[in-house]
Amino acid sequence: MNGPAFNFSLYLAQQRRRSVHTVRAYRVTAERFTLFLAEHWGTPVDRAALARVEAADLRAYLARRRGMDVEAAGLSNASAARELSAVRAFLEWANGVRAAPVLRGPRVKKGLPRPVSPGEAVSLASEVAEESDEPWVVARDWAVLLLLYGAGLRIGEALTLTGATLPLGDTLIVTGKRAKTRIVPLLPELRAAIEQYVATAPWPLERDLPLFRGVRGGALSAGVVRVKVQRARAKLGLSERTTPHALRHSFATHLLGRGADLRALQELLGHASLSSTQIYTQVDAAHLLDVYRTAHPRAGEGRS
């Protein structure tokens, strides 16, 4: 049956040219929200009925998702904010921007610096990527942020990669500070993200030219990435400490929490001194491991 959630997904795919992943995620949220309203109001919900949604309805929905819904038990603030963003997009499609009720998303309490959780990292990368209507820009931003979180690159290291890195293999040669090179493993998810960008980029990715390009064809600026992250973290209610460099920090702390050797971590990060790497030992490894197991969909694989 073609309900409002289905028609919303068609709009995202055909008119907004959103990725398959985003269309699927937003459709699931729209379906879940529509079913909640039908139960909440006691009446069927069509596109016209969505004009009746008020801030109180959104608060009730989030309360259900975060408190009563077993499936969503432990839903993080970032995930809740991401879901609220999808609901807003659904309501704006149905009734126009002005008709969408205003409700501030949940915020993460400020406190001691901490790594970005795997779930928050994915939410942040998704939010940044989906800011653009250009599929190749979506793919570019997703690939860049995954390189920071999944390979521990500095933002400058990611943006100085050139077309010489293609075709991709299982590892990546990275040039760091003082022109020191290192080899980092390239996870299948990272390789797929970069290859998707390469397949959609409108510019020739020649060996001696930057791999990641701006909208006018020049090298992508680190400032552009930082501004995008700043806007995304505000929408998701993440701490102002959530910066591109925080993703690299999270890469290190999560690996250390999983039992990585400090010397190996030093090599992966490209630290000249072990003392620079030792700062990550100050983060509670047991807490990090718990966060990882809770939030990462593949955390349980590969353990004996």
Task: Summarize the structure in words.
The protein has 304 residues and is mainly α. It folds into 2 domains: 96 residues, no CATH class; 178 residues, Intergrase catalytic core (hpI Integrase, Chain A), CATH 1.10.443.10. It contains 13 helices and 2 strands; from the N terminus they run H-H-H-H-H-H-H-E-E-H-H-H-H-H-H. A two-stranded antiparallel sheet has the order 1-2. Helix 1 packs antiparallel against helix 2, helix 5 runs antiparallel to helix 6 and helix 10 packs across helix 13. The relative contact order is 0.11.
Descriptive terms for the model:
304 residues; mainly alpha; hpI Integrase, Chain A; two-stranded antiparallel sheet; 13 helices; elongated; disordered C terminus
